[in-house]
Amino acid sequence: MSPTSSLDTKEQVRQATDIVDLIGQYLTLRREGRAYKALCPWHDDTNPSLQINPERQSWKCWVCDIGGDVFSFVMQREGISFPEALSMLAERAGIELKSFPGAASAAAGKKSLYEVAAWAEDAFHRCLTTDPASAPAREYLQQRGITKESIEQFHLGFAPNEWDWLLRRANADGISINNLIKIGLLATSSRTGRQYDRFKGRVLFSIRDTQHRPIAMGGRILPEYEDEKSAKYINSPETPLFSKSNQLYGLDRARDTITQQDGKRHAIVMEGYTDCVIANQFGFHESLAVLGTALGERHVRLLSRYADQITLVLDGDAAGQRRANEILNLFIAGQLDLRVLTLPDGLDPCDFLLERGADAFREQLASARDALDHKLFVATDGVEIGSGSHEANRALEEILSTVAQAPQLQSGGQIQTKLREDQFLARLASKFRVPEETVRERVVALRKTARRASRVQDSIASHNPLQIQEPWERELIEIILQEPESVSRAVESIAPEQLSDPACQRIFACCRELSLAGETPNFDRLVLEFDDPAMKNLLVELDERGRDRGGSDLAAQLPDLLLSFQRRNEKRNQQQTTAALKEKKFAEDQEVTILQNLIDQQRARQRDS
């Protein structure tokens, strides 16, 4: 496959992907003149610092020093390679990848995994709904209150209690055993080396991505098959299709039905698959569930794409209270409006809905505490808060630490949110019998500490962005980006190997090759030449700085820049020659000629100066 056809493919995908629409699917954008801004997801951003340039189809966060084009944004946001990003954006744009081997093979590999996952989902589903041997599974679901309609809508299934049920069907249907292993439905015995059905004896909840594609399974073992060795619930392992840190059960259905309440998009997050299914049966179609793991930072980021307000519905036991307390800071730091509902009488959402109905559940949702009120309730449980005791001081410190996590308030935040914080702090001061000024000063101190810790963490996690250290080399590329036609003059005086910075060498060599081929090495063309996000980021930075310094007017500085380079080059050559003379590396007759040349060059410089 020729390089030209690969570039044509990248350019076709890039032109079909509007960077504002793309980033807008991940982040909330704010228009500023011709550009857009958003809170950067890669650092603790309080003042939108991620800038999107629709004209250049580029983005940049100057705090993180990362940026690039549509490809590098997807690579950074999704943690994937360039071929995977190209494949993802091509699929999004409805473009078939024929002329990019890396992306085509990546797309083909994943496509086959998706196809196998869909085949398995269908096999398990048909087993549950039509196989007489699956009667115990149907009875179990009926006992849990799950209807036939829900079984169809959520593609529920059943894996018979046999070690090789799926294996035999795969062989009969010509399905790749290797692919079934890759997506975690088959496992390999460490004792015998043979493959076996990972989910045998379990009712299966199909996990789908936001494009409605099956990617994994969650399984609940039937009670009659339980023993001391078997886990009640298991999920698919991490696979090329599935990461439990990046997925939520039911999001494929809920994303299009998340409701608006008081101008906010609202979602309900529960702990179990069955809770989510039953909630949907009762009309709460905005319900989701975690996948056998605690909610994490990636889940919060995922939720922020689709909802502004989250109600976290937890079991009404002490463990549920504790789990909510552990994740409050994630939501507050993620700027999501979190409400916490712990159901009465120790009930989980499934049992509550089946016993008391939709209206009672709706009343509970309306009474859910917001994050700070829940924090106050949990932290002060069993504590005499006005006593000034060690326990009371510890509780106050814990609450203030949570308040300090809210990044939008560090720089003022929205007036309504700021007012609410002021009221909450005044309330805390009154309850704990502490001067309000003391409470506010402590929050300020905690925020400063949090910011310092964040900066240290950002430094530790630094991706070491590329920089061109030599100022004149950096200026050379800035000029070329603003006035690409100037490269023809630059290449007459400079060879790539004469540049000291490796990144500058690569960019200049690429410009030279494009110019010799009759192509204009402008920003749009150059950014397609490099798949590495660090190089894309460097090009965006140089382009932005060049435009800030004068745009195309910079080209007027090129003659002086080239003359300066010529003089530096001559001086360097002279120093090398002088050193060689001192080391007696030349014959006597050569020394005379070389010395005369050095004298002539010196006189020429004096005349020009």
Can you tell me about this structure?
The structure is a single chain. α1 packs across α4 (82-93), α15 (371-379) runs antiparallel to α16 (390-403) and α17 packs across α18 (436-460). The two termini are 53 Å apart. The strands form four sheets. Strands 12, 13, 14, 15, 16 and 17 form a six-stranded mixed sheet that branches. This protein has 609 residues and is an alpha+beta fold. The model is unreliable at 408-413 and 455-463 (pLDDT under 50). The protein has four domains: 3-99, DNA Primase, Chain A, CATH 3.90.580.10; 110-235, DNA primase, catalytic core, N-terminal domain (DNA primase DNAg catalytic core, N-terminal domain, Alpha-Beta Complex); 258-456, Dna Topoisomerase Vi A Subunit, Chain: A, domain 2 (3-Layer(aba) Sandwich); 471-589, DNAb Helicase, Chain A. β7 (186-188) and β8 (195-197) form a beta hairpin.
Care to count the β-strands? Answer: 17
Rg over CA atoms, rounded to whole Å, is: 31 Å
Cα distance spanning the termini: 53 Å
* Count of alpha and pi helical runs: 25
Please state the average pLDDT score: 82
Classify the helix fraction into a percent range: 40-55%
CATH architecture of the largest domain: 3-Layer(aba) Sandwich
Characterize the main sheet: 6 strands, mixed
Strand content: 5-15%
What CATH first level of the largest domain would be assigned?
Alpha Beta
Any idea of the CATH topology of the largest domain? Dna Topoisomerase Vi A Subunit, Chain: A, domain 2
Structural class: alpha+beta
Poorly predicted parts? 408-413, 455-463
Total domain count: 4
The oligomeric state of the chains shown is single chain
**Large-scale geometry:** globular
